[in-house]
Amino acid sequence: MSGNIKSSDVPIGATAPVLVDCLTLDRENPRLVGNDSSASDEAIISQLFKREELGELLQSIAANGYLDIEPLIVLEHDEVFTVLEGNRRLAAIRLFREPRLIERIFNQERVHISLPQIEEDKRATLEEVSVYRVAHRDDARSFIGFKHINGAAKWDSYAKGKFAADWYRRSGLTLEQIAERIGDRHATVKRMVNAIYVLEQATNSDIFDIADRVNPKFNFSHLYTALSRAPYINFLGLTDVWSRFDSKPNPVPKEREDNLREVLTWIYGSKENDILPVVFSQNPDIKHLGEILVNAEGLNVLRVSRNLMDAYASIQPAKERFAEGLLQARGAIRNVTNSLRGFDGRDLSLVTIAEDIEETIQTILGRMRKKIRSIAENDE
Predict the structure, then answer these.
(1) From CA 128, how far away is CA 99, in angstroms rounded?
(2) Is the pLDDT of residue 30 over 90?
(3) What's the CA gap between 216 and 50, in Å, rounded?
(4) What is the DSSP letter of 31?
(5) What is the pLDDT of residues 282-298, one digit of tens each?
(6) What pTM, to 2 d.p., does this model score?
(7) Alpha-carbon dihedral sign for residues 182, 183, 187, 192
(8) b/e for 65-102, b at 16 or more Cβ within 10 A?
């Protein structure tokens, strides 16, 4: 292989070796959360390191060298190749090749990357890599979409949604056609793109900023799961059939944008305003929040208390709350029983707590038995 090959010498639709120095990271990479076209290489690589298990790839390259099995997919512009597929690999290679890059990443992004030692024969594999050149981004979308949405190397849900939404906007294809090309048989692509449009509306209207979320991980699946449920659709003023057809920009009516702000804050919180999210897991929290949205009492409790459990309890019938609480209490007591060997007999405060539980249980049993007797007497 000759590493001196120029970008103009790489035929479109063919694979050829090129120098790593001719490659650049893709600023439209769907993996990136919150970055724009002006993002620095340091910002991009730090995010790939934090979110994409770049450490494992670094270890593999240090041990084996770069295994040039699958070519990077690239798009040429002004004698430079933008890597459409393979940004993680390029980032790892550059970390080994550019000694000052790790220092710049730490200074700019406060992310520390520990680089494993690499022997010179392994380092020699990082000079050039194979690339497959395409004429347009669209030419690579089917392959990338299949690989990272339904294939073996799946992206996280937000990266999938961004990729599918961009493909939909640029290609002129319907979402059904895109889903067919990547083997999606469960309308997942449509749900993701719908959520991307809602998220973009919130961002453009200064309702929500992804970077303001409390959890370092952006749980995009919480949003697209919520938006497929009728209570959220009604609360946000979306039409009943909005999820059946291809997505449109700004789907939430202007007069319901305050509701959108509430939903996004309940799901993701706000660091700037020191507001914690009330949703901590997709199941059952997203379901419970939806049930609260369509109940005036529960909604008021949530707005005042910012406590999902309290709000959900307020909308449950007393009979259901009692039965559920009793079952939960039994489970907790059984867990304590299984851990009795952990009690060494020294902490007498634990005995006081157990006695209080016993008294509470006797009170509950007494009232239950009294009600049973009362019913039996009325039936005679």
Answers:
(1) 18
(2) no
(3) 10
(4) T
(5) 889 999 999 999 999 99
(6) 0.61
(7) negative
(8) bbeeeebbbbbbeeeebbbbbbbbbbbbbbbbeeeebb
